[in-house]
Amino acid sequence: MTVAPSDPTAGEVRPWWRSGWRRYLFPGVWLAYLADPAGAVQQYQTGWARVAGYAIIVVFAACYLVALSQWEGPRSWRRLAFPAMWLLAAAGVPFARERAFVMCIFLTVLSIARWRRRSLPIVVALTAVAGFVPALIPAWHTGIQQDWLVTIPIVALAMWGFFNIMRTNVELTQARSEVARLAAENERTRIARDLHDLLGHSLTTITVKAGLARRLAETGQADRALAEIGEVERLSRRTLADVRAAVSGQHEIRLASELATAHEVLRAAGISAELPGSVDIVDPTLSELFGWIVREGVTNVVRHARATWCAILLGPGSIEIVDDGRGGPPDSGSGTGLAGLRERVAAAGGTVRAGGDGRGWRLRVDIPEPARPEPVTTPTIPA
User: Fold this and answer.
1) Ramachandran region of residue 367, left (φ > 0), alpha (ψ -120 to 50) or beta?
2) Helix (H, G, I), strand (E, B), or coil: what is residue 190?
3) CB neighbours (10 Å) of residue 129?
4) Mind listing the pLDDT tens digit for each residue in 56-110?
5) How many other C-beta atoms are found inside a 10 Å radius of the C-beta of residue 90?
6) What is residue 356's three-state secondary structure?
């Protein structure tokens, strides 16, 4: 037997036993029990009555396979197959007599699969019908079928547990598929964010240095222009390596190296820079995060601020980048780069404040100091 999840539209990933011809295999094994009513038809009927009895059993078996294996298929299958089984079970009673109530087992299984706990009244009704109806028909010469009074409830209980396990397995498969999808989505987001930060900064630097080299060449300072072109070439090679590292998730950013790069970029852009001479004050665990902040902040200064001065201020758990550019309204930092920056800072439990007052721009990041355990004092044992 097989079972579908409670949501028939969910679960694109199917276990091997629920695909192709295999979904008919396990339900088909249990059809062997229909040999009992088929034997009763052979015993009690002759001629066309026997053919009709066999036909009822065959169609009942087909509906059972459809009702279980096609549970996730078109709704019309479910609407037709299950009610048809009830009618066929009732129609089979005159042909197979008391042994036709074997079909109640299959109806119990389908009721549990479809309605779960709500199928309890149906199970009770099927048990009563299979157990007591044969005793009410004197021509059959049978009494109360005590076997059915025990067998049907046991089958119902076993199938309830079985279908719960199947549903749990299906939900687990779907959960694993969703986890894999989310992991892939997170990885794509990470790569997109890293590439934006890397390429935005690097291409801005290359543009600034290339422009400086052109201006130097125009003024006849060929040696300095060649030096700047050499810097552009080295930066291009380093950017290519950074992109490859970012895609593989092995890219590393350090605050000290980013400050050195920021000094060169600001100088090439003609912006006066006030940068810290040391990063020792910063918590080492924040070096990479603050490196990303410097990269994004300085890139925005060069590309958008039209500033003549920029300063970077460091604290143990804070960093601030200010300039005297054209600024903007307070808390107006909502670009793609700042959105990625906010994600990085939020992951570290910090906050980002970005905005201006028309006379400059300020980007500040604060990371709360992690709680440290209080020192444990060892009592002194007197001599």
Assistant:
1) beta
2) helix
3) 19
4) 999 998 888 877 765 544 455 566 778 888 899 999 999 998 889 999 988 988 8
5) 13
6) strand
